[in-house]
């Protein structure tokens, strides 16, 4: 094991040579404790030798200062800083370190299979655990839908615009399949809810051929939901306000003709049925205040 930056650890493959690397991250938001505890469990298995990874692994605790303070961030949302920015402060410096670590990882291992960035949701969700996939113009042979089901997830949201998230950065710069994994409730981090994901990650690390195997389908595949982002709701002024209850759970269905929000350009009314995700009017001006989705 090597430590490249604070709370950034490289684990070489124990025996297998030439296997594609994996990036595991958590704590990009420091108060999302459930995923942090899961990664700590896997980390402990690695350092004690109870788990021998057969893939090169970059293991990242994203925002150590915020984790220590048990707060979402110190100066600015770290998951909006993986690209050009005018912001300065602790999170901007940390984003630079994480981008440097990922680039070094790719140079060292050659090929990176995937990046899994673990988070938890601030508000309740009608789909408790779900994944978000950034814009990716490559075709993947991996059956990610079935893998996500087997890891305990109930839905997949495909982004339609590039953002400066960690997952979009690694997808673009490392050429890997990247996902933001929303692993359950922020307010009630029940560690038992991570059992399927933990077992899936342990198998991923122990078996270098796991991702390309024919994943076994389960009855849960039939209920797995696919969504695509139809609108990024951007807070453009201080007058921005939602016209629906922003406390509504993620994936709430809004009928056609619903008045969703009001800003300088007037009222946004849904022209088709849409599902809500991440509604939050308290973000900084210029930042995303939510997403509207369609089911596919």
UniProtKB/TrEMBL annotation:
One of the record's GO molecular function terms:
hydrolase activity, acting on ester bonds
What's in the keyword line of the UniProt record?
A: Hydrolase, Metal-binding, Zinc
Succinylglutamate desuccinylase/Aspartoacylase catalytic domain segment(s): 22-205
- The UniProt record lists the AstE/AspA barrel-sandwich hybrid domain at 223-294
Q: Is Metal-binding set as a keyword in this record?
A: yes
Cofactor(s) needed, names only, are: Zn(2+)
What is the recorded name of this protein?
Succinylglutamate desuccinylase
């Amino acid at each position: 094991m090597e430590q490249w930056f604070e709370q950034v650890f490289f684990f070489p493959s124990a025996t297998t040579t030439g296997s594609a690397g994996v990036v595991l991250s958590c704590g990009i938001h420091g108060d999302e404790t459930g995923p942090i505890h899961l990664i700590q469990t896997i980390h402990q298995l690695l350092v004690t030798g109870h788990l021998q990874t057969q893939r090169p692994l970059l293991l990242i605790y994203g925002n150590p200062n915020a984790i220590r303070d048990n707060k979402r961030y110190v100066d600015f949302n770290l998951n909006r800083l993986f690209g050009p920015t005018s912001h300065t402060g602790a999170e901007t410096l940390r984003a630079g370190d994480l981008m440097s670590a990922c680039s070094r990882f790719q140079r060292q291992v050659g090929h990176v299979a995937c990046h899994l960035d673990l988070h938890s949701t601030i508000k309740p969700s009608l789909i408790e655990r779900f994944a978000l996939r950034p814009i990716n113009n490559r075709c993947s042979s991996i059956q990610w839908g079935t893998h996500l089901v087997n890891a305990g997830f109930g839905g997949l949201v495909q982004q339609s615009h590039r953002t400066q998230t960690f997952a979009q950065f690694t997808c673009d710069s490392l050429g890997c399949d990247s996902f933001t994994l929303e692993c359950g409730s922020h307010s009630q981090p029940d560690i038992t809810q991570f059992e399927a994901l933990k077992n899936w990650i342990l198998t991923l690390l122990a078996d270098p051929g796991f991702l390309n195997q024919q994943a076994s389908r389960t009855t849960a595949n039939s209920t797995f939901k696919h969504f695509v982002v139809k609108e990024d709701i951007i807070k453009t002024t201080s007058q921005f306000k939602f016209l629906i209850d922003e406390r509504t759970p993620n994936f709430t269905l809004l009928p056609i003709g619903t008045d969703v929000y009001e800003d300088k350009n007037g009222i946004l009314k849904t022209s088709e049925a849409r599902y809500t995700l991440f509604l939050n009017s308290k973000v900084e001006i210029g930042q995303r205040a939510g997403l509207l989705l369609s089911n596919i």
